[in-house]
Design a protein that fits this description.
alpha+beta; S-adenosylmethionine decarboxylase; 6-stranded antiparallel beta sheet; globular; spermidine biosynthesis; S-AdoMet_deCO2ase_core
């Protein structure tokens, strides 16, 4: 689905913030965040998190021996992801502000993109 989500810079329009908390991540998806397997760029590519906002500039950090953090910037918009992949307590969080998610179609697209990266058993969304 090609829905523009680019950030608003000078419209003066207030754009909503979205926050997602995800628990019990799919084991296969969570396994991608172990440093002994991949580096940060590979984690971004394999997991799909770089495609949530594909035009954004990405800064990522992988932790030893596991875990991942990613921040993006696109114009005045920012997003962040943090992942703790260990099976007994896997968790991921996502937050974005400054993107145009003001319609149901745009909001649902972002939620679907995020969920496809982690496939959690439980999640909450706050807007």
């Amino acid at each position: 689905m090609n829905v523009p989500l680019s950030s608003s810079s000078t419209t003066g329009k207030k754009l909503p913030t979205i926050e997602m908390c995800m628990r019990e991540l799919d084991r296969e998806k969570a396994a991608q965040y172990y440093k002994d397997r991949d580096d940060g760029r590979t984690m971004i590519d394999k997991s799909g998190v770089g495609q949530i906002f594909p035009e954004a500039t990405v800064h990522a950090h992988e932790f030893e021996p596991f875990g991942f953090s990613m921040n993006t910037v696109e114009g005045f918009a920012i997003s962040t992801i943090h992942v703790s992949p260990q099976p007994e307590s896997s968790y991921a969080s996502f937050e974005a502000v400054g993107y145009d998610i003001s319609t149901d179609e745009k909001l649902n697209l972002v939620i679907e993109r995020v969920l496809s990266c982690f496939r959690p058993k439980q999640f909450t969304v706050a807007i």
